[in-house]
Amino acid sequence: MKSTRGRNLLHALPATAALLLIPGGAHAQDITNIPSSDRIPRPSVRQDSYRNQLASEISNGGWKTFLGDLHVHSRGHTFGLVVPNVNRSEVHQAGYLFGFDFLAITNHSTSWSDADEDASLFQYGPGIDGYGQPHYLGMKGSEDYVGPDDIAHTTSFNRLLKLNTNDMGVWHEMILDRYTANPLNSVHVQLNHPKYLNPYFRLPQRSHLWSAEGVAKVRDAIELVEYTSLPSFLEFLRLGFRVAPASNSDLHANFRQAVEFDDNGDNNIFLERANGAWVRPYFEEPGVPRELVWPKIWAHNRTGVALPVGTPWSYESFLTALRNRWVFRTSHPRSSGFFLGGGLPMGTEMELQSTSSIPFTVWATTLDSQPGDETQWKRLEVWSPHSPEQPLYVEEFNDPALLDLKRTFSLMPYESVYVIRLEQVMGTDVVLAPVWITNPLPKPTIAFDNGGSQVQRGLRIPIVGINGVSGSYFVQRANRPDGPQDWRTVKTTTQPFHPFDTTHLPKYSWWRVTDTVQPYAATNTVMLTVTDALDVTLPLPTVPPTEVGTVTLRWRHDVPIRAAYYVSRDNGWNWTKMGEEPVALTTNAWRFKAWQWGDDNVMLKVVNAANPSLFGATTPFPATTEAPAWFPAHVASMVL
After folding, report:
1. What's the topology of domain 445-530?
2. Is 535-639 CATH 3.10.20?
3. Which pTM was predicted?
């Protein structure tokens, strides 16, 4: 693989003076005015950090992950005539003491103050860790208001936008004005709390006003999107953004009274008791992990940043990691993940150099994880934004000792974007930055030879040709006349064509080919019609049936036949005859008493009694054991 984007952090970075965090030292208008009794006490020494090390067996010694929060507010919204505020130094001191690896204070552009303007762009926590790196990175950003009626918010870092506009074009222009290819001198943009299918954000479109180069620069500068759900994240990728997922708290400084009611005016959990105590002793505030206030809620989100082992943890390496999309989100505060795709790290935009499959290696771990704490890994999924209904690839795990995950697999690169999600037993998950492929392989296609999608049984063998498939693949069939459903594999092969034996096919069948590793990477669908087969239908839905325990099957044929009825409980391998029509008909209905067959899946078949090669069959459907109270057990199961 060839990377089309990626900055090498192994080269020397410009030295930058470290600004130590010192309590107090408030700038103008940066005085804490929230009572200390409302705030959770600070520990006397720094708590454990969340840093993990992954993939130590690879050549450069692996990758180290850092976890933090890129969206908190030292000031709150106006409450009466007084704005709630926590001094910036106190917020960073809390972040340092509570173990964050990084924290960004991102006050609103609509209420930007002198204290925000005077604050340091970045600063380090006191002392260094065992690796000789700063314990903590504190940063400044601006949460900017953009889009229709200020609905869309973004955060800018390094070269701040401090924007408040309804014009998305102004936002694009300001990003372009502050963008450089060197991440140390450029603006960096995060899309904040988006809504699924209503994101408000758009990239500029190529036009006489925007060159392809300008569009690419804006897209390159927008690096992160806050993760609200997998469908929302996939939607942004489908819109063309090159974003990695981030998860932040969006905590604001606030007064107790301001959080006494929710948006509907109802009392919330911070309401005061009759004896004067508070229902909860402390409320959420910037710099304090949410799990300290909400210990019984398992999802406490973090943004994760990955760096090659040996790379110094610094503001410069942080900015470079953002530009390279070496970023992930986690809903467990101590869990991290990382992967290589085609030998290149997550976040890479790559160009294929061959038509072979791409190897993926995925790692994940949780700091201080122990057997029995439900942090073991349960599931690995690979998703494409262009196939959002189901994952392309899935692995399930059932190992209580699987605390450190490593999995290797290969996928044919039919998609332009791949997203990996890892789930833990407790329900927490880690979603990793995508990889982008600029020249994906065309998906396989199938077609009947000479348009032979309609044949007469026994007179002609239809052959479907498969184009663009390499290796092993599944030939699959569905046979519901109302559309392709219930796909079943009928053959595994490596041949570029597949002949159909029509001896036992129903009148209508649908066919496709899928990759054996990526069962959802399917070709187009083609329909085959066997002209001398019976047309058999079941009403939908079949469960529950309109009459409890009874399913009605209908059939028809162009010329009269004397029909016989069969049932199978093993997907058509063996059939039991249930009855036969006394006269020849062109159409009829058969009421099958499904409750007598237990909880099995059953298939029904209608056969020409005079010529058994003429038949029609249903796909399997679930029966029921629930018999009508009035129906005697000895009555035959077929009603003509």
Report:
1. Immunoglobulin-like (2.60.40)
2. no
3. 0.78
